[in-house]
Records
---
Amino acid sequence: MNSAVSARTQARSAGKKKRNSELAREERAFWLFISPWTLGFLLFTGGPIIASLFLSFADYNVVDAPTFVGLRNFFDLFHDKLFYKSLSVTFYYAVLSVPFTIVCSMILALLLNNKIKGQAIFRTLYYTPSIISGVAVSFLWMWLLNPDFGVVNSLLSDWFGIKGPGWFTKPNTVIPSMVLMQLTAIGGPMVIFLASLQSLPSDLYEAASIDGANRLTKFFKITVPLISSVILFNAIIGIISSFQVFTQAYVITKGGPDWNSYFYVLYLFNTAFAQFRMGYASAQAWILFIVIFVLTMLALLVSKRLIYYEYDDKR
Amino acid sequence: MRKKGKSLIIALTSITAMSSVLFGCSKSDSETGDAADPGKSKVEITWLVRTDPNMVDWEKDMISGFQKEHSNITVKLEQIPQAEIDQRLTTMISSGKVPDVWSANWANSGFATYNKMGALLDLTPYVEKDASALAGINKNILDIYRIDGKIYGVPMLAIGSFLFYNKEIFDKAGVAYPPTNWDDTSWNYEAMRDTARKLSSDIGNADKQVFGVFNSMAPNLQAWGFGGDFFNPDAYTSAVMGEPAVLTNAANKEAIQFNVDLINKDKVAPNQTTIDAVNAIGDPFLTGRVAMVINGGWGFWSYQPAKFKWGVAPIPYHDGRKVPLFVDPWNVSAKSKHPAESWEFIKYLIDPKNGGKKFMEKTSATPADNTLAEQWYQQVADKTGMKAEDIKVLNEGAVKNGREADNHLIDKFSVIGNTINQTISGVWNGQKSVDDGLKEIDTNLRSLNLK
């Protein structure tokens, strides 16, 4: 994007005609490069999405034809205790998980941003866990956080003489345990942070050094504002992925103990594939879409004043 | 630009969000469309099984043998992991590309759910036409999948429930083994509790503790053992859960209270957290962490790798005691295009001289066909070092005191079961009183609205 935009700023000084042809060429290139994704989306995803919109106003049990029920699915949903329970579980998780993920991935990115030998190796090492399948990672954490035989609790009792918590098996610790699991998933945001850190202009830091700023001041007064848009991006992605937690709950806790990890998407999955209520599940999916959409909008609105974009068009 | 770029990001992220929600973890199906042979009477049927490396030989053997006998029929094998069968069947059924022969109990949902959905074919005409092929199947077992007078499934196996015990722990504690006769009323729950007390050791030390007893049955099945039931009798015949009987049947409280006392008062049984922890390192019975376990009859073969000698006993006696039977049927899809050929294949699979016999030899699963019973007693006896005579007594008692498991007879039971389990773990852990737990289960079951 950036090069395209800067190309455009340069183009501004040139004649209008040339600019138009530049633009047209850019646009063509854009559509060309995006086409595999667009086609795939239209063929395999777009259709089902539209179908699910229609199904959300219907009763559909897979065998019989769907029957139209108007808004009943949505009314039922708003009287459904589990709907609120699963939403609150998911919100609770998001509130803990998004800041945790951003702070951890930012710290890692800052560490990896130092020019040391073998930086590339470390970068790879820290990124690797993010590409492992969710089921495998879930099993790994089940082992680590096993209350009686897990590595974590063994170390706690051997080194500090503390009896470790029950982690996934206790109602009050299950969500924090799930948040802790994010430690194996921070590779993605970390790489994005790292990319933005490496593109920061050094002259600002040099100027700050001359003014006698220490490292912390530099970080909070220069780095954070400069990469604020990236923080926002990671926060939005984090919110979205928090609302899509499924694998770990499905594999590790089945939504327990006592519904305390009954994430929204797990509920949706059970509605669809254990109860075979496809219409109701479609309604749940659309409500989820609206929730995510609203949260994303909120994040953008709140951040409007706080975010610095380097290349604002001053039209 | 700024506006544009941002809205594009929102659009993209929200679309990605949507699509991954709707299609969670969709596996790419490499559907190799039906290669319909031009030959006129050539027919292809699909056989869906659970992915199980141990069973592949038997499956291949069945297909090749059957195709030799019926040159016009090709059987296509489709293997799907059990956890994914529900999901995949949904798409198959809605698109009309159903498997012809399969077992509804091999999905997490079970027979009742699929039958209620109308996904299973009424096999009555075939069963009547070929009565001799099913002559060996115990009538009570055959009737399990007879719904409103129509047969929707042909039993391939019928597994009872038992108490398995670790003989070495008994010997070490100098305690006498429990009996083998189900009618022996001296082997009741109190006797089991006393025995468990003598067998427990090092409780509280996670690395060394041995619990006297562990009832691995779901809460409703534990209630059956005391003559209780979380559901009304109608639920099992109509497949509709309806009004739960969690609070109306007094024996339910007795059963749940008994297990809570074993865990928290006598401290001779593991709570939910301990069991979750132990399960991660292996089966609690096989790893010697529990001296007695109440479990389905698959213990007969799943406990064979044990490094110690073990025995089998009846589930303790109580007035009104009922124990679960686990009967798996072969089913044909209602939308199958080749029901007659599918039926031929099922007959081949259950043939006590061939398919059924080989299935039993392969799995050790208790056969539904009586003609194979004697061979099964001997087979299990050889593998476990028990007496064939004892196994016969044990198994006949389990069938006599047994009734078909709830999850096969009540529609949407995986949801019902999950609803019960969510609350019960807090009851086992002592965070909730038995009364509160049962009340909560009752409320939550009612809010499922399964009428």
---
Amino acid sequence: MSGNEIVTDVVIIGAGPVGLFAVFELGLVDLKCHVIDILDRPGGQCAELYPEKPIYDIPAFPEISGQGLTDNLMKQIAPFGAEFHFSQMVTNVERLEDGSFRVTTDADEVFVAKVIVIAAGGGSFQPKRPPVPEIEQYEGKSVFYAVRKMDDFRDQDLVIVGGGDSALDWTLNLEPLARSLTLVHRRDEFRGHADSVNKMRKLVEDGKINFVMGQLGRLEGADGQLSEVFLKTAGGEMGIPATRLLPFFGLTMKLGPVADWGLDLHDNALIKVDTERFETSEPGIFAIGDINWYPGKLKLILSGFHEGALMSQAAKRIVHPDAKVVFQYTTSSTSLQKKLGVA
Amino acid sequence: MRIFVTDQTGTEHELEALEGWRVMEVIRDWGLNIKAECGGACSCATCHVFVDPEWVEKLNPPTDEEEDMLDSVPDYEANSRLSCQILMSEELDGLKVRLADSASQDAAA
Ligand SMILES: Cc1cc2nc3c(=O)[nH]c(=O)nc-3n(C[C@H](O)[C@H](O)[C@H](O)COP(=O)(O)OP(=O)(O)OC[C@H]3O[C@@H](n4cnc5c(N)ncnc54)[C@H](O)[C@@H]3O)c2cc1C
Ligand code: FES
């Protein structure tokens, strides 16, 4: 628990392309933002689902990759010094007596803001859970989908499942700590960086870790404490003594806690907004990008950018009700250029 | 042309398919329980199906990209495929597949 509330003008939930560009538009009208995302880096779907695939419909970029777009957005918004809070999920939003909001995350960070911008896209990214009976009862005790504290794995009999970079990286990082380590993957080919694959193979050769070609079958243990992992292999079922299990099957999106904040929803999944301000049914809470719905909505990055621009005008009026909002172009306004650090 | 899709509850559906469409698109457009998060870009593996053994050999083998994505289905079987990577053609008229649990809209953590 940090104990200290972070007080700011705007909290943006989601660091996808739309949340990022919102920092820019809000910055132009002098609003200070904190951005929270459950991922450990910015970019949302662009960075997580298709970092290397080209996007062809961003104005003035005939072609740009998901990661390239993210990198450029980060560069573009840098002058506004938004603060990022990664690897945490916003779980709660409540209104305070003075009309502002308190936002809480699962890392116990607390924010107080006059305006909330929900840019939660397709929802929060969460690990894919393997269809293993009763796996829930081990989660957080001996089954983990991410490594938060390396020390949780010291002197443990560890089984890591997966064939991508997460599985390989944690195999390499945890090998020196673990009492024993078994890497399990469905085939003898790995998606990870060649260098990691080579290092992993060397550890197998040297007898420091085991590699088993197979799949997760079932778990055995008691009170959330794992004792054995059973694998399905070509040669039949195989049991491995294990006290910790790390399955890495990547991430998928889930609406998550957004659904519980009492906002009017469309089809139980998308947040209804007006098309003038992109405000939700709750004054002061806006929703932009893939997460919102209005008649004619297109789930495009382009649309999310437009929504951010209109939202920022309305947000300004909430944070500074007495200030005059004047419309200016970045090309010709010295005051905007000063904010951007170019004049 | 038609495809036969067994959903996660075990019910079989006979769906009208169009030449050149992806099997994922057919399943999605008929409203069955498929997440297909990335819309067919071979980037999510939430369109995972098990292909009826009689049909496995008739499909184009998976590309390396599809194999890599199949690594991220937690319920892989030897007949696992991503339905967005199967294009409908005359030869596939009558194709039978079963939707994997990991393709469900509510499958997650
Ligand atoms: C394969 C693929 C190709 C695509 N190609 C194109 C294209 O060519 N052109 C185009 O315009 N669009 C394309 N899209 C769609 C585009 O990626 C989305 O429209 C865009 O990412 C939406 O941006 P967003 O910021 O609204 O949401 P997202 O990118 O989904 O980002 C939302 C962020 O919010 C976070 N979040 C959600 N809930 C919480 C919470 N409670 N607490 C903390 N964090 C939370 C998530 O972790 C995520 O990082 C494509 C999508 C995919 C998957
Ligand atoms: S729809 Fe995403 S991989 Fe098929």
---
Amino acid sequence: MAKVTVISAPAGSGKTSLLRAWADRPGQPRRFALVQVPRGQQDTQQFWLDLLRAVRQITGVDDGDGAAPAATPDFNAPAMVDRVLAELADVPGEVTLVIDDLHELRAPEAPAQLIRLLTALPPHAHAILAMRHDVRLRLHKLRLTGELAEIRATDLRFSERETRELLAASGIALSDSGAARLYQRTEGWAAGLGLAALSLAGHPDPERFVAEFSGSDRTVAEYLIDEMLERQPPDVQDLLLRTSLLDRVNGELADLLTGRPGSEQILLGLEDANAFVGSLDGERTWFRYHHLFADLLRLELRRTLPEEVPALHRRAAGWFTLHGQVADAVRHTQAAGDWADAARLLADHAFSLTLDGQAQTMQALLRAFPPGGDFPELALVRAMGDLVQGRLDEAAAHLAVAEAYAETTSPERQRRLGVAIASLQLSLARRRGHLDGVIEQVKFLDAPVSGQSDQDIALDGDLRAVALMNLGTAEAWSLGLPDAVRHLKEGAALAREISRPYLEVGCLAQLSFAYIFHGADLPKSDSFATTQQRCREAIELADRYGWGAEPVVAPATMTLAGTMVLLGEFDEGEQWLLRTEQALQTDTGPDIRLLLHQTAGMLHAGRGRLPEALEEFGTAQHLASQLEGSQALASQMTGWRLSTLARLGLTGEARAALAALNDERAGSGEIRNAVAAICLAEGDPAGALDAVHDVLDGTAPVLGYATLVEAYLLAGLAHRELGDQRAAHHAAEQALALAESDRLVLPFAMTGSRELLAEIPGHQTAHRALVTDILDILRGSSLPAKEQPPSPPMEDITPTELRVLRYLPTNLSRPEIAGELSVSLHTVNTHLRSIYAKLQVRDRSSAVRRARELRLLAARHTR
Amino acid sequence: MDPTPAPYLIRIKGHLGPTMLAAFPKLAARHRGTHTVLTGLLDQSALYGVLAEMEALGLDLLEIRRLTPHRTPPGADHRLSR
């Protein structure tokens, strides 16, 4: 079998029947993952999710383990293709991916994504693509290597013998000449033969039917459908006509449209009797009509019952609204010509549709409104599309229209539109980096909603959860921390309550970002470990839904990378940074990319790669300049860039950039530190001491205590230059004391404090274990990257043992360790024996090596 | 692409009955032997819409031609003659 088979043939050629017959063939050794592209599919995400579900169905992973593929507002197509490929690779044995009605896939970006998939299929996987007309896919590579097979209309055509076999199989007795005439008239066209067989089954005089049919000049399809319809009882005819305007139908909907009960039985009977009605699910509750058949029925409905068509659409829309299928509801409301109602429906559900991953569908519905029509409700929907596409000025203009319109509506509606508009304004402001003032304007989002019907509350749940996420995010970015934490926590709780995992991930990810600043003024025991724990929780939740590589989780992966770098775990930090970069591929916002470059700069600086660090800090600063307002990390970013310039000897450039800063910025602790670094590079240690003075006495505002650690180290380096060893040691000891609880390493690396630490006599520091760790890292023996570390095959090391373990890399003797820990030598020996046993080692140096491998010396294991 | 509507002739195999013809309200139809000839003024998007409709209905398209307004082609209705 060829790698890819393309079946391209007109409507009714029997493509779908061929595929189904193929898949259902008894003894078929391969497994089939079948996807039917719905009519006019403009939403690539829905297409890919369908494909993923089909593949998962055969791998059996989709059996309610809570890991069902879920849609997101920010869809990452390349990541999705990789996911499908990974799932395909896991299928044991041969597998064939079948995509039927590929011509219905209208999204312009879809072919490229599909080719990516087709050209990377694993060896045991094949694909069959069926389409009504040739779809331009660049498959020439496959064609050249003979891996592409084509099946066209002539290949699908029935032969005369097959026609006779079909008739015999349907229990139709027809003379050889009758069968020959039927074959000639239909030219072996599958749909024609199928319809003819339906009319012939139980026909009193089949020969006469064939004679009349052959004598008619009418098109095959129309003639046969008319005949077939006429042979149906009136209630069946009526059901077929009235439900033809639905893309899919179930018994309840059909009852509603015909005004009669019992439709489900009719539909089941039709499916059993012919190939033009098929069920879409295993339970046989949803049905669809063959496209050609449905199109002709629709024409017939419009011709015979034109005045009823709008009412039928209205009834269908009502049913879909009630059942939460908003896109279908809007589509039918539009078809009924109720444009204003359709606009309102779309605007009311815009957030829910986006959260359902139907943003593209929503924009397609938007385009279906008549041009030039005055539908102010749509301004909100347009603004959402603009925001996604990064058209910020257009978004602002549409929001202004929406705002003006909201004022003219009823108080209740005004409130709902107000929340939606405020939510979008926050997201717009964040993208522009202009948060000052906006947060004040939208404080009303804080107030709970009350006094509404159940449906309103459900609707407002989405709205409110999005609003809380946007508000908390904006606050986190502008350092309104207590509020940010409160709002994001509330948002995450609400999201969980209303089953919106996407929003829960979003809130948790932003929360972990907020926590890196929260309480960072003073070191608290393990605040980084707690932050990392929160990051991992958010990432784990995202992974469960397959969103591990999407922008929504980026704040968490970024924060995790940042803390890793701060703790000197450069290799693991780099891995998280790479993952963040991947997740941000589809995000165009400068705000979060800025952080990406900042963290990359920290990583390079920590590793002593100053030119690379300078480039990253420079890029971050350039992105910052695209944002309108000041942001949380601006002083830090500028400070580090200036310090890096200085350390590279570019003191002139550093000075010039320094002179361009405004007073407020220049007075921050981060910039004072940068001035100190410049002074040190210029050979002016006294100037450096002067620069950090305000930082050390607490008068200069600082972003976090890391700035303070840095200031002590700069002071220590300055004292050292001045030959005052005692003061140098004292400053270093202060830095170590602050850094101890989190085991912060980066400031020591960035300031180049290796010698300063190395010169501290062992007995003069209370932080020997930390000093040894830091020196190890600065010597380049960064902790090994975490490649699925072998899970400790032993019981956990206890916290007391861990304290002893931390001293093993030092050159302290056992009695000295006992002294440091204020315990007896006997106790230390007991702990050591236990540690060696648990680590399965024999001596101190292999214990240290093993502990490093297991990352037991890293900060987050401190309890 | 030319935005102005132009007269087109489309020839289809078989006679189109009332149901099929309902799909092409902008076109005039005549039977010519065992074929149906549809004519009308169409701009490009209307033309492609008509072709898509024909594809959906499984019609056999035999010929499609843009008519020059100076000649009166066989089967053209009064709208096409000058």
